[in-house]
Structure formats: C-alpha cells, structure tokens
Amino acid sequence: MKNIIVGLAVLALSACSSLKSGWDFDPSANFTQYKTYAWVAQKTDASGYHLDGLMDQRVRDAVNSQLSSKGMTLVDAKDADVLVNYLTKIDKKINVDTFNTNFGYNPYYGPGWGWGGNMQTQTTVREYEVGTLIIDLVDNKTAKLIWRGSVADTIRDKNTPSERVQLINEAVGSVMTNFPPKPENK
Question: Among 5, 68, 77, 113, which has the minimal tally of Cβ within 10 Å of its Cβ?
C-alpha cells in the first residue's frame, strides 16, 4: 500500500516528453452544451488507494486549470453539467534484453579452417513501473461517461515539489488537449 502511494506521489510522468496519452468519447454527446463542472465527491472509506493530499491537489489544480482555459466553470455538484473524476494505477512491466557478442576469426570453409572464435550471450532483465492517470468526465444528468483521457509513462523519482507540479501539469495538459473533441473528430 505504501509503495503504491509513494509511486503515485511521484507519478513522474517523465520530463522527456515520452508521455503516452489517449482519449475516447461518446460520439452522441453534444460537448457544446457543457459549460460547468464539479468534482465527484470523494468516498470516505479507506478501502481503496488514492494519492496523498499534495499530489491530489496538484492533479485537481492541473485539471481545473485546463478546464478553465476551455471556458468551463467550477460549480457545486448539483449545478454542474459534468462531473470530473480521476483514477491512478501502477503496472509493473518487465523488459528482457539479450545481447550476443563474439570475437576471433572464424569464417567457415570446412573442417579445420580459420581461427577459433568465441561467443558470449548476456541477458538482462529489468523491472520497471508504469504510472497511468485516467481522467473521466460524466454527464451529470444522465450519469453516462462522455469522455475519458489517459496518460502513462515510466515512473521516475523527482526531487523537488516544483518538478512534480511541472510533470503533473505536463501530463494533464497532454491528455486534456483532446477535450472537448473537435467537430471533425466526431
């Protein structure tokens, strides 16, 4: 549990712009009607995991900034056109690389020709974590998911809070670029 929180706390969706973002939406939704939003109320039970308070606020601030720049206004949940929520997850991945090296002279012309050669094989196995941030927008009247965006990258530790803020802003910005869907994408 603590590893998950620590990993999410450094949801370091790296600064080298290798962010992998994607999105999907309900083509029947009329995105021009959505002008206001509210955050989904957090459940009080501790059965699930979530970001620590600082990271939670960073994600919310980044999403608020993106939605505000798109002309949407934060209001109370009862008055909102859409409800916003985000989820995080960490997946462990394994990378296996095998390298063959040889040295010496060993052309084959038949038995006894050439010099002796030597071949070595080296295999390295590396385990790493990939963090994913998923942002959902739900129509408040119909309770239907109308838009989902996600961004994923290898988790790397960042030392300062300002680096963490920058990475979260970059990650949220990359996924929210596609909201609202443009008419030609419908």
Answer: 113
Its pTM surpasses 0.90: no
Residue 49 tokens read as 């995991």
Q: How far apart are CA 23 and CA 177, in angstroms?
A: 10
Q: Is 158 strand, coil or helix?
A: coil
pLDDT tens profile 23-78: 999 999 999 999 999 999 876 555 555 556 788 888 999 999 999 999 999 999 89
Cis link prior to 180 (omega < 30° from 0)? yes
Phi and psi at 16, nearest 5°, equal -90, 20
Residue pair 128/93 in contact (Cβ under 8 Å)? The answer is yes
The C-alpha R_g of the chain, in whole angstroms, comes to 24
What type of residue sits at position 137? L
